[in-house]
Amino acid sequence: MADILPIRAWRYNEAKTADLEELSAPLFDVVSKAQREQLYKNPYNSIHLSVPLGPDPAGNAFKKLNEWKAEEVIKLDTVPGIYVYYQYFKLHGENKEYVRKGFICNIRIYDWDDKENINSPDAILRHENTIPDAVNDRIELLEATEIQASPTHGLYSDKEYQLEEYMDEAIQHPIAETEDYQGVRDVLGVIHDYEIIKKFVEVLKTRAVILADGHHRYEGALSYYKKKKAENPNHDGSEPYNFHMMYLTNIESDDLRILPTHRLISGLQNFNKEEILEKAAEWFIIKPIDNAFDVGEVILGKPWAFGLVFKDQTVKIRLKPEMIDKIAWKFPDVVKKLDLTVLHYFFIEKVLGIPGKDQRKSPNITFERNFTSCINSVITGEAQCALITQELSVDDVKKVCYSGYTLPQKSTYFYPKTVSGFLFGSLKEDEFYTTPRISF
């Protein structure tokens, strides 16, 4: 199952840099244009490694990384550790404070297509499809820098909560603490004790990990691993390129939250609202909604129900129950009956005419997590319509992963997002391992 190692991290040098809050950044797939412009003004912000600028962004990141090392803006850990990472947050409209508990480590890369690999490809399970262009960008950056600027996010199941006591102890002595762009309090601690780290390694050896967030970065790392392995005639599985930096959280935790990701439709030729509603009526029950901002409450808790927002009209569409068996896509029932499968098959394919095989690359479909931004995009004419969705349950994610299938792209938004800048993971041999190597 999952094979993890402690991480020997590069971290900002407190003697050389200002407040860590000024150096951290949102992940590359959620950072807004306005945020980027502000963050780029700081020459030491982590965004220069995670979302580099210029006509040669990967080359610029490589140059910046070497400058930081030479100037000791960042320093390399003397010994590897398990980095405990807690995120304290509240959800809109709630007073309760949640805390998502997890830890950052290196995890062995598993090739989903290599079914004969002695290291089971099922040790890491993906739950959604990716968008090819985003993967290519990640590969180029990793090849140039050999650095991982932010961890992907994985979920493991431990109903006995065997690791929480060690994490709770470590977080009492934080080595970093910030309030990030989401209003989330991010706290970092570290475990260097050899025997405790062994406990983490042993617990994960009996678990599969579900990849919750960072599919593009993981697939970039997988492609990098395949290339390096093919180039190395003495490959033995211990090389740094066999591993990937990941933030792991217990899927059994009550504080794991998934928020919905909505769909925006734009640029469709001959777009006609009346024709769309007429086609939709074959598959869906359609009811008007007076106020577009009420749509989330109107569809809440109702299976196969969505908000359809036009510039001058908002409706609820809900699949007619007798239609569910008409899905021609060859998926098991656990996938067929998901809200997002229904939306992508019956509305995006059947009503809008975008075939399922083309949807991953379609320029007509974009994704937006912010509900208000969806409405504004339609009002301003930036989008022709918005499809408002509901959140997916953690149980549904588990069922789909264990079925061996994947969800449509951008199906889940595990909240809160991790930030980049707390630490960086190197894939260089002399930076990945200590000398002599510490065995776990």
Report the structural category: alpha+beta
| Number of helical elements | 15
Query: pLDDT average, as an integer?
Result: 91
Number of E-state strands? 23
Poorly predicted runs are none
Percent of residues in helices comes to: 25-40%
Largest sheet: 9 strands, mixed
- Span from first to last CA? 16 Å
State which percent range the strand residues make up.
15-25%
Taking all Cα atoms into account, the compactness measure Rg is 23 Å
> What shape does the CA trace take?
globular
Please give the structural blueprint.
Elements: E1 4-5, E2 9-12, E3 25-26, H1 33-39, H2 47-50, H3 57-70, E4 74-76, E5 82-89, E6 98-108, E7 124-126, H4 132-145, E8 147-148, E9 152-156, H5 164-170, E10 176-179, E11 185-191, H6 194-204, E12 209-213, H7 215-231, E13 243-250, E14 257-259, E15 262-265, H8 273-283, E16 284-289, H9 295-299, E17 305-309, E18 314-319, H10 333-336, H11 339-351, H12 356-359, E19 365-368, H13 371-379, E20 385-388, H14 394-403, E21 413-415, E22 419-420, E23 424-426, H15 429-432
Parallel strand pairs: 7-12, 9-13
Antiparallel strand pairs: 1-6, 2-4, 2-23, 3-22, 5-6, 5-11, 6-13, 8-23, 9-12, 10-11, 14-21, 15-19, 15-20, 16-18, 17-18, 17-20
